[in-house]
Amino acid sequence: MKLSVSALLIVGFTGVATAFQAPHHVPAGVVASGFVKTKTTTKSTSLHVATGTPSKLKVPVLDEVCETTGVTLKRYMNEVAILNPEMTELVTLFGAIDTACKAIANLVKRSQLPSSETLGYQGEVNVQGEDQKKLDVITNDLLKRALRFTGRIGVLASEEEDVPVDLVNTEKEAVYTETDKYVCVFDPLDGSSNVDAGIPTGTIIGIYEHDENCSIDEECVGADCSAAELKCLTNTLQPGTNLVAAAYCLYSSSTFLVLTLGAGTYGFTLDENLGEFVLSHPDMKIPETSSIISFNEANTHMWDEPLQEVVGKWKTGKGKSGKSFSSRYIGSMVGDVHRTLLYGGVFGYPGDTKNPNGKLRLLYEGAPMSFIMEQAGGASTTGTQRVMEITPEFVHQRVPIIMGSKNDIEEVIEAYKAAGK
């Protein structure tokens, strides 16, 4: 990111750049903020929970990558908070996510060492009937603690927790308790079964607004107390259209953190020399048409007929684009979606005769990743319904998911409509 020659760097005794003299020729619509000139724009976000109307979010337009140390995640979130004071508390929340993802990345890297205590299975089965690896439990506890001690979370739900966890009405006080503004849902280590083979894994996070009027009287007892607690915990059961933010961390050749606040999708890469996530993929846009499919094609014979038909045409070059599609499938949702965002394509885990609702969870996998995909210009569907519009009926609800390049997803939707589904 290039600066005017007239910009004056002032360095304090700590050696940290603290200010720039703004050039006199800053054009209209550009804010001289922090280290660089930053344009701003206003974008419509998802529905606001309280009013049911689209909110307006001002975002810094960072459309190129800085050539020196870069724009860090902290800097980006601070810029957003300056432009949108009502979102200031998200800075603290993403600070915790930043640290947690770095810690999980280190755990994953060290997991195969003989001295590591993360190898093997915990000896327990989670609510989905899946064997829990030690790494699943460790990363879940790590992320849960990181979020809890921000003091900004009222309730959280995780793939590894049987039920949502109330972080407000508990005897254990958080470090800061000024607010319980948000609900957080997450999959602490998506694709953990692949760790032993060195295949990319990731963390998926969704953030909703919490009903601040939801509190439990400390003196309540019995059924009344249980009903009040249940009402508070159901704050997690919100459709994706209510998401305030979503993010994923990918642990692979590099550690990536990709996020959306409802106004575009931004990708950061961990610079291990600095210990900071640095903006590497500003305002990500997925190609509208692609030639890559990412499915577990061993299940093709069990899919719905419309999907079989569309994928069959793509393979033979008889689809709308006229391109012959190639297949790329990792088997780790975060890895497959990240590649799809960068290169275009269609990722899916559809329903089939064995698993009619697919295998991916709506609340902490489907909705957050769909939010990120849509904000990058893509689309996400079950085949018959937009994933973002589905209201979960229970925390661990599964849902068929097909997401990716907009034109290709439209082709899938049209096939289901033509079949009367």
Task: Please provide a brief summary of the model.
It is built from eight helices and 20 strands.
What does this structure look like?
This protein is an alpha+beta fold and 421 residues long. It contains 8 helices and 20 strands. The protein has helices at residues 73-83, 89-110, 134-148, 222-233, 305-316, 333-343, 362-375, 406-418, and strands at 9-11, 17-20, 30-33, 36-47, 54-61, 121-125, 131-133, 153-158, 165-166, 182-190, 201-209, 245-251, 255-260, 265-271, 276-281, 292-294, 326-327, 346-349, 379-381, 401-404. The strands form 5 sheets. An 8-stranded mixed beta sheet has the order 9-8-10-11-12-13-14-15, with helices on both faces. A hairpin with a 6-residue loop joins strand 4 (36-47) and strand 5 (54-61). Helix 1 runs antiparallel to helix 2 (89-110). The longest helix has 22 residues, at 89-110. It is globular, with a radius of gyration of 22 Å. The chain starts with 8 loop residues before the first strand and ends with a helix. It catalyses: beta-D-fructose 1,6-bisphosphate + H2O = beta-D-fructose 6-phosphate + phosphate. Keywords: Carbohydrate metabolism, Hydrolase, Magnesium, Metal-binding, Signal.
